[in-house]
Amino acid sequence: TLFSNKKKKRKKICYIFFIVVNEFCERFSYYGMRAVLVLYFRYFLLWDDDLATSIYHAFVALCYLTPILGAIIADSWLGKFKTIIYLSIVYAIGQVTMAISTIHDITDANRDGTPDNFTFHIALSMLGLILIALGTGGIKPCVAAFGGDQFQEHQSRQLNTFFSVFYLCINAGSLLSTLITPLKSVASTLMVFIAGSGMYVKTDPEGNIMWSVCKCIGFAIKNRFRHRSSSYPKREHWMDWANEKYDKLLIAQIKMVLKVLFLYIPLPMFWTLFDQKGSRWTLQATTMSGDFVSILISTVNPILILTLVPIMDRLIFPLIQKCGLNFSPLKRMTVGMLFAAMAFVSAALVQIEIDKTLPNFPSSSESQLKVVNTYSTTLNVTISPNEHLLIESFGSSADYVTFDHQDITVSLNTNPVITKAFSLIKGGRQTLIIPSDPTVMYLKEDVKSKPREGKNAIRFVNGYTADLNITNLDSIEPSATTNYTLVNQGKRDFVLRHGEQWCEFSRKFGFGASYTFLIPSTVFSDDCESITEVEDMKPNSVHMALQIPQYFLITTGEVMFSVTGLQFSYSQAPKNMKSVLQAGWLCTNAVGNIIVLIVAELGKLPKQWAEYLLFASLLVAVSIIFSIMAYFYTYIDPAEIEAQVRKEQGLEPEEMEKETLEMEEKDEDQKNEQGVKQTKI
Ligand SMILES: CC(C)C[C@H](NC(=O)CN)C(=O)O
Fold first, then answer.
1. pLDDT-derived band of residue 681, with 50, 70 and 90 as boundaries?
2. Ligand 1 centre from 469 Cα, in Å?
3. What CA–CA distances, in Å, run from 95 to 45, 73, 187, 221, 500?
4. Which range scores top for mean pLDDT: 112-126, 530-544, 572-586?
5. What confidence category does residue 180 fall into, taking pLDDT thresholds of 50, 70 and 90?
6. CA geometry: angle at 461 spanning 458 and 462, to 5°?
7. Does residue 27 line the site of ligand 1, with CB under 6 A?
């Protein structure tokens, strides 16, 4: 017996391995594609930021809505195994379609590197994304539930470990996703999953269960309405009004599912905060310093998951249990929400620090102006009505001057005095460039937000007497100013050239700054030494490491909330509705994403830190509501309830046991048979 038990255990580990590796590969493919999706929208389809982010969030929301479809197909029709196989094929077709849509040569007849027919590429990529959403979302509830199905009722500890390992694989897949192409991994996902085919415990679908559930609920509501008079005796539960027509077992199962779904109502709020990691927090990082921005953003969450899940499972939860505290799943989820709220408080504190260092940008009714002087002497600049600035040659005004009107007149104390009228841009920042011939002074528009991704915006004013060529820039005419170019952090070299003459100019950049470099007429004679710099925007000074606490808190929250939610959704579902409840759980994520979309569309509070605090407070309020709901929730053992109802229906426990035994024996025979077949092959 000992030998055969060990053998069974080893066999189980083996086929669980196929399932978790399958999840690893699938997440690998999904996150690998998702990581480059916004870039594809921005730089291939040439969409603007807003459209790219909206479509991205809509796609993510769709990926977490389609699980309902997958669950219906699995529980009512194909069974989980076949659903996973077929929808994985749809998934792979989606990835191929998406890949084809990125080949610009298909419509680039004139070979200029730009597609000629954007509509074709957009249509193809949208089709690809829909297929991917259908594939990834459709299989998601089935894989988790299918994994759970491999365990027997008494194996609840192993089941919990399975879900933790399953979650680890999700995150290991997402962590490594950038290294291997997504396409290969969909194919390997399928192969890994099929490889374990002969070993799995496959539960059969029980007819069109979803349709029966809807009909049963509809009947209960109608029947309750028909018997609304007080002369009819009350029933314990409103679903009991379906007793006249529907099987008691089905009614009991629906009650279990509805109880859990009701509990899910407040949960999207957690995901609303969680999913802002990828939007608001990423933007916050671009206003900070530190050279690990992209690495931090894409890897910190999965790395923390890989560390925290084992720590929680092996250390924290057992320790809490040893202290005699009952840290039930719903309590864990509540604490998870509170951690996410704390993460947002931490983000607000970081934001307050950042705000102290941010430039004072103009409001929508204001205009800001700075003056740069490349004239040969110091100038006294008067900006009507009462702004007087003294600006050295090849220098600038100390900071931007803010005006609440747009029409200004500028006078220079040259001989004769030069006066010129300008109209400033409302809500904009501009620089008045005074060239060597001040009569042609002109306005140049400046950046009015922090350069993206911690880059630096730089431009040059040519005070040299002839055209100049600067590395990577078009040639600049005398007295002209280039447009901004974005440069990365670190040391950058520029070569300035005019005919045979040249000199090299080096500059070390930080993060998120903006500079105007003034090139004097002596530039070649002093080997670029005399180039002066005007700091239009200071580099970021709050270090990105300050974001680590908020990532740590939200990931701790995720481990408590999400891993537990996954286990809870499986354990509280009746056998024939496991995928449906998994889908319901994933839908809370979709709704959370939709809320992010709506919030982004509605705009933000004037202060970002206030918005973070608002979200934190909302989640605390929601977690209080959830804890009250959880207090009234009684954990159930679906199998026990089903057995009890069966017993009440007259099916003797012995018969049931016999039935189960027969099924188990059948399963075992089937597996042995397949094992023999495989060995023969
Ligand atoms: C809604 C899911 C549980 C999301 C999950 N994401 C992560 O684990 C991210 N740390 C996924 O399945 O991708």
1. very low
2. 50
3. 17, 22, 10, 43, 53
4. 530-544
5. low
6. 135
7. yes
For the Cβ of 63 lying below 6 angstroms from any atom of ligand 1, the answer is no
Q: Measuring CA to CA, how many Å separate 188 from each of 19, 88, 129, 176, 185?
A: 12, 11, 20, 15, 5
**Best mutation site among 30, 170, 589 for ligand 1 pocket (most ligand atoms within 8 Å of CB):** 170
CA dist 427 and 376 (Å) reads 32
61-65, 173-177, 418-422, 621-625: range with lowest mean pLDDT:
173-177
- Above 60 in pLDDT, residue 3? no
Q: Is the CB of 171 under 6 A from ligand 1?
A: yes
How far apart are the CA of 309 and the centre of ligand 1, in A? 13
Does the beta carbon of 257 sit less than 6 angstroms from any atom of ligand 1?
no
How many angstroms separate the CA atoms of 65 and 93, rounded? Answer: 20
Q: Is the CB of 61 under 6 A from ligand 1?
A: no
Atom of ligand 1 nearest to the CA of 558: 10
Residue 589, ligand 1, Cβ within 6 A: yes
| Cα 170 to ligand 1 centroid, rounded to whole Å | 7
Tell me the CA–centroid distance for residue 168 and ligand 1, in Å.
Answer: 10
Question: Do the Cβ atoms of 150 and 49 come closer than 8 Å?
Answer: no
Beta pairing, strands 514-519 & 456-462: parallel
* CA–CA gap between residue 325 and residue 331 (Å, rounded): 11
Which structure tokens are listed for 78? Answer: 């194909």
Q: What is the pLDDT of residues 371-390, one digit of tens each?
A: 999 999 999 999 987 899 99
Pairwise CA distance, residues 144 & 169, whole Å: 12
How far apart (Å, rounded) are the C-alpha atoms in residues 35 and 245?
Answer: 51
- Is residue 290 within 8 Å of 545, Cβ to Cβ? yes
Counting from 1 in the atom list of ligand 1, the atom nearest the Cα of 565 is 3
Q: How many CA atoms lie within 13 A of 506 on its CB side?
A: 3
Tell which one of 28, 60, 64, 174 to mutate to probe ligand 1, the residue whose CB is within 8 A of the most ligand atoms. Answer: 174
Residue 368 bridge partners (DSSP): 402, 429
pLDDT in tens, 459-517: 999 999 999 999 877 789 999 999 999 998 899 999 999 999 999 999 999 988 999 99
ipTM of model: 0.95
With contact defined as beta carbons under 8 Å apart, do 373 and 398 qualify?
Answer: no
d(CA 432, CA 430): 7
Sign of the C-alpha dihedral, residues 153, 158, 164, 169? negative
569 lines ligand 1 (CB under 6 A): no
As a whole number, the mean pLDDT across the chain is 85
Give the residue whose CA is nearest to atom 13 of ligand 1: 170
Three-class secondary structure assignment of 575-635: HHHHHHHHHHHHHHHHHHHHHHHHHHHHCCCCCHHHHHHHHHHHHHHHHHHHHHHHHCCCC
Q: How far apart are the first and last CA of the chain?
A: 29
State residue 280's pLDDT score: 83
**Number of the ligand 1 atom closest to the C-alpha atom of 305:** 10
Task: Indicate the pTM of the whole model.
Answer: 0.79
Q: Is the CB of 305 under 6 A from ligand 1?
A: yes
Residue 671's Cβ-count burial label (10 Å; 0-12, 13-18, 19+) is middle
Compute the Cα dihedral for 205, 208, 210, 214 and give only its sign: negative
Cα 517 to ligand 1 centre (Å): 47
